[in-house]
Design brief:
Shape: globular
Structural class: alpha+beta
Mean pLDDT: 80
Largest sheet: 6 strands, mixed
CATH superfamily of the largest domain: Carboxypeptidase-like, regulatory domain
Low-confidence stretches: 20-30
CATH architecture of the largest domain: Sandwich
CATH class of the largest domain: Mainly Beta
């Protein structure tokens, strides 16, 4: 009889734990930041930008989101399912340039510049809405600033 009581007590403990876990799952299921699908093409001076990174950062008006970093594919497209909803600021990071395969630079030789260096997002502010969003991003060349003497 004592053994039956212990078995029954264990069952009750597992039932209570199950109920607590189910309640916790329901409570935390809605706590994530809402996101959306975002895709498009990145162009610079009329041609596809085939490398680099886009950063979508929620603006002050949308402070609940988390910045998202997306790599640009070799065909100039990008895609994510975790873009923050609301107003975002977009920035572009050019990839570092690399020497051609097998090339040995001289010690005093400067590193090559990425063909995408100096490109910036033409229009920086966008709004991401729930569902599927298509956003083509044109980049423009940053004009050199005059030197200060």
């Amino acid at each position: 009889m004592h053994t039956m009581r212990i078995v029954e007590l264990r069952r009750n403990v597992f039932r209570i734990l199950g109920i607590c876990l189910a309640f916790t799952a329901v409570v935390f299921a809605g706590c994530g930041t809402p996101t959306a699908k975002l895709s498009g093409k990145v162009t610079g001076e009329g041609v596809a930008v085939t490398a680099g990174t886009l950063v979508f950062t929620p603006t002050e008006a949308n402070s609940g989101g988390t910045p998202v970093t997306i790599s640009i594919k070799s065909d100039g497209t990008y895609e994510t399912t975790t873009a923050p909803l609301g107003k975002v600021a977009v920035s572009y990071l050019a990839p570092p340039a690399a020497y051609p395969a097998g090339y040995e630079p001289k010690p005093s030789e400067p590193a090559p510049e990425s063909p995408f260096a100096g490109l910036i997002v033409e229009k920086k502010d966008f709004e991401v809405k729930a569902g599927n969003n298509t956003l083509d991003i044109p980049l423009i060349r940053l004009k050199a600033l005059p030197k200060i003497r």
